[in-house]
Amino acid sequence: MRPLAYARVSTVAEAVEIVAADPAGAFLAGGTTEIDLVRLGVARPDLLVDINDLPLHDIEDLPGGGVRIGALARMSEVARTPVIAGRYPGVAQALLLGASQQLRNMASMGGNLCQRTRCAYFRDGVSPCNKREPGSGCSALDGLNRGHAVLGTSEHCIATHPSDVAVALVAFDAVVHTAGPGGARRIPIDDFYLPPGDTPDRENPLRHGELITAIDLPPAGIAERSVYLKFRDRQSYEFALVSVCAAVRVEDGLVTEARLALGGVGTKPWRSRLAERRLLGAPATAESYAAAAAYELSAAVPRRHNTFKVELAQRAIVRGLTQAARGGMR
Amino acid sequence: MNTAIGRPVDRVDGHAKVTGGARYTAEISLPGLTYAAVVGARIPSGRVESVDASRALSAGGVLAVLTHENLPKIAGQPRLLPSLLGAAAPGQSFFPMQDAAVHYAGQPVALVVAESHEQAQYAASLVDVAYRREPSITAIDEGRDRVYEAQRLFGGLMPGRDERGDVGTALAEAPVRIEAGYRFAANHHNALEPPATTAVWEDGRLTLYDSTMGIRATQLTVAHLLGLPLSHVRVITHFVGGGFGSKAMTWPHVTLAAMAARHVGRPVRLALTRAQTYTSNGHREEQEQRISLGATRDGRLTAIRHHKLSITSHFDDWAEPATGVSSQLYDVEHYEGVHSLIHGNTMTPTFTRGPGETLGVFVLETAMDELAYELGVDPVELRLRNHARTDPRGNPWSSDGLAECLRLGAERFGWHGRDPRPRARRDGDWLIGTGMAAAAYPVAFFMPEQRARARVYEDGSAVVQTGTQEFGTGVLTVATQVAADALGLPLESVRFEAGDTDLPNTSAAVGSAGAGMVSAAVHAAATALRDRLVAMAVTDADSPLHGADPAAVEVADGRMRLRDRPETGETYADLMIRRRLADAEEVGSWTPPPLTTPHGLLTFGAQFAEVAVDPGLGLIRVRRMTGVFAPGRVLNPKLARSQLMGGMVWGLSQALLEGNEMDTRHGRWGASNLGEYLVPVNADIPEITVEFVEVEDDVVPLGIKGVGEIGQVGAAAAVANAVFHATGRRLRRLPLAAELVMDPPASS
After folding, report:
1. What transmembrane ranges does the database entry give (chain A) (predicted)?
2. For position A330, what pLDDT does the model report?
3. Which of A103, B197, B284, B715 has its CA 20 to 30 A from that of A186?
4. Which of the residues B654, B672, B676, B731 would you substitute to probe the A interface, choosing the one with the greatest number of A C-beta atoms within 10 Å?
5. DSSP result, B64-84
């Protein structure tokens, strides 16, 4: 492991100031991904600023029915908070289906949003990878790409974003709050995740020294009947082949509102706006869901080993919408 | 007198393990300890053009950087032989860092020694190695034009071809034929403890703490490679965190640790990283198998042709032998088993739990399931109809039990009344299927004489020793049980000691042979000591047993007594104190039967599984498994059940999850950690029932046939046959990944 310095701070301002001043400085929250990446030599900070003492752990109601989740709230705390489980069951379920209990007890919400891809070529530290070493090429394009994305890909990167909870947050238009050298910002979560394009090393718009302080979930009645389904090779402690966050409002047999987001198949947590639009006004039937799913995946670009994901994602969407229309997780 | 054997006693090392008191090799702390880190080659084929160690050498705490340019030459390369033989057992007949050639990715090209583990790891990342890349072959698909038939396997131990009768004609004439080909991804062992070695030199003598399944193999191999007298090499292994074959052979890092320690003049600990375990201790090779069955209409097998193709290293003809069971299990006149190989740029593959036969039986038992469908015969009945009464030489089995396993398994599982039609049972989105397979695994007698020593002290407590090692199987516990019974002592009075080559010699604990051979040696030593003390008593004029027939004396709770007059006798302690003996000691040995023993040698079992398959999403959930086994005498049912259940979990895992793909462009494995190489989590494992069928066996040691492998054999086939029953689709690859299992898209 590379030698590095460690500092522990107690205010947001101090944290931002120290990291901003050191080009190779980085924040350390739960550390469940970051320490791995440091040990692998993939992340190469000279200084880790431990932010776990910052007052960013609370989960609070917002006027009007939304919820604010502190960036340092742990995944397990958020999942068991009644207001999350009650108003946003898809979010709670996404959290519970991620990682393992031990990791969920440690991993922070802000860190979860910033976690890096599990692409083996990114993590091995030696293969060409545009995300790790811009301009070196993408080993996954013609390599072992079973786990890779079919949506939002570019010729420079096809790595999936691994977060589960981000998929649910994207479905419900969460807003990311940050504090940085230039002040505070509010970033709609769908803008928080950047498609790889020709800069796959840049995954979000955070500037150096800018820290996530909170995540707001706006009020959304439809979320109360949301579901999060995750399909993977083994039954726990694994990233998704495909996951679906879905919520549907049905009146007189017709879909009047729909939220749909996918994990495991996109280069970013994938809000399925094409499918959502297609569903509006459609009969709440498996046929409509399948048509919407096909529409969403019509833009898919599969590679040699992940072709199955195009079909699998469509089937998963139908399952998700069907279950959501039946009343959600409960 | 038989009180401890057969009882489900707790592990003698259980407390130490759950409290952290058990010290594993990488936890051995020594004064002046330094730490070594291996730099593995990034290319699979070519040469090291240059090594620039300047950045590494200037990093904090670095003591040395060794490369092919400054590492001393080895004294000699021992030949590759399985460690069970009791000879030197290098995992491969190639030792790295002797020249600039690179034969496989991960091959050690440099070794860094530093004051701390972290410093060594960091400095290893700073060693700049320039390579010249040459073309490589790292997968079967790349080497199909270079296939050759292996003459001998396992370092010359086994023939590559096994045939009898005229299989071509018999298949051509068979009224019913089943033919299929299978592809199997490579497997890695993933023992929880990555291999580690700590090397200490003192006055030209070497002590190695090594995480190995065979301390003697480590001693012999390292002594040979370094040209040391055997008396100058001592190997100590107290606990090993799992082996599964990965620690059955002595891999290069062990000797590199010794060479590094000699170079820096201080003790060196070399602990492989998790990623390095995928390129440092062998693997189950990527392979293809084809099988043809010929049968009569009434379901009698007439011919089996079973071919295997796999990839090995450039330096060894290694293949897991896959035809040892398919050639013997069923009564079939015409048989042909052939192993073909491709030389490739991987390290030499090695034993992986259930070596060879686990996939050989998968192929055989899947074909039998197909034959059962073809004929409309119940799969259990088809096995019963064809089970051989003797081995192919006409020798009776040392013990059998297959039919009883099949019948008991069918009963416990609730097999009878099964509707054989595929895709006939549904539960919501899930299709339900059941499947079964016969299981068999060879009993191997390649080991030399095994020895143990038993000592009783004047207070009636005992120490029994042999040079085996505990790697999770429970051998410390069963050997204590065997010693206690043979000496006639309570379990608490016996301490069993192992894990040191200064103790009497036993071979590596591999091939399901560990418990049997260790127990046999311990039994011989303890019995010899008891007999000696009894003889001493009956010839001692002051003993109440004076003049008695030794055969009329039994020992219980440390007291020798007449069997038919128990009130007459005395304790070991009484006798020894009177005779002023502080202790008494005997060495005992057990010699395996010759390879020509006129007996068939297989362990038998039967496996049953129920699965639920979601054909839309390609998901498989195993709902329950039943395994029934006839492993001979069961020394400790608690430990045996655990080991068999663990084997069945391995089988489930092999069916559903395990596989490592090669990125042939880079010549590197796709998975190099436990996040990428999937093994089951608790949520994947259903209710598992393990049952025993008792068989008497007087050929194998103490009647023990072993439980190390048989639990795994057949389990994957039972699962895959259940998947066929559920879905009506026969899948020809493992693992059964979602993309294979999901129904194909409706054609548009």
Report:
1. none
2. 45
3. A103
4. B676
5. EEEETTTSPPPS--PPP--GG
Contacts of A4 in chain B (CB under 8 A): none
Q: Which range among A237-241, B169-173, B742-746 shows the weakest confidence by mean pLDDT?
A: B742-746
Alpha-carbon torsion, ordered B212, B479, B506, B651, to 10 deg: -50
CA-to-CA separations, A113 to A42, A174, A251, in angstroms, rounded: 18, 12, 34
- Name which of A233, A238, A297 to mutate to probe chain B: the one with the most chain B Cβ atoms within 10 A of its Cβ: A233
Query: Are the Cβ atoms of B681 and A233 closer than 8 angstroms?
Result: no
Stated length of chain B: 748
Helix/strand/coil percent split, chain A, to 5: 30, 20, 45
d(C-alpha B502, C-alpha B506), whole Å: 11
Q: What is the DSSP string of B638-662?
A: HHHHHHHHHHHHHHHHHHHT--B-E
Instruction: Identify residues of A whose CB sits under 8 angstroms from chain B CBs.
Output: 1-3, 41, 118, 120, 124, 126-127, 139, 142-144, 146, 231, 233-238, 241, 307-308, 311-312, 315-316, 319
Instruction: Kindly state the helix (H) or strand (E) to which residue B161 belongs, with its residue range.
Output: strand B161-164
User: How high does pLDDT run on average in chain B?
Assistant: 96
Helix axis angle, A308-325 relative to A286-297, nearest 10°?
140
Query: Does the pLDDT of residue B511 top 90, yes or no?
Result: no
Mean pLDDT of B304-322: 96
CATH number of the domain within which A33 lies: 3.30.43.10
Q: From the CA atom positions of chain A, what is the Rg in Å?
A: 19
Whether the per-residue pLDDT at B1 is higher than 70: the answer is no
Let me know if B549 is exposed, middle or buried by CB neighbors in 10 A (0-12, 13-18, 19+).
Answer: exposed
Mean pLDDT across B126-131? 98
User: Nearest to residue B271, comparing CAs of B36, B102, B451?
Assistant: B36
Nearest to B122 among A1, A307, A311 (CB): A1
Q: Provide the pLDDT for residue B748.
A: 47
Residues belonging to chain B with any Cβ–Cβ distance to chain A shorter than 8 Å: 42, 60, 118, 121-122, 125, 429, 616-619, 621, 656-657, 661, 663, 665-666, 668, 670-672, 675-676, 678, 680-684, 737-739, 742, 745
Domain that holds residue A299: 227-325
pLDDT the model gives residue B223? 98
B446-482 pLDDT per residue, tens:
899 999 999 999 999 999 999 999 999 999 999 999 9
Q: Is the pLDDT of residue B605 over 60?
A: yes
Q: In terms of domains, do B565 and B645 share one?
A: no
- Alpha-carbon gap: A253 to the closest alpha carbon of chain B (Å): 23
Verify that B641 and B553 share a domain, yes or no: no
Low-confidence stretches of chain A (pLDDT < 70) are 328-330
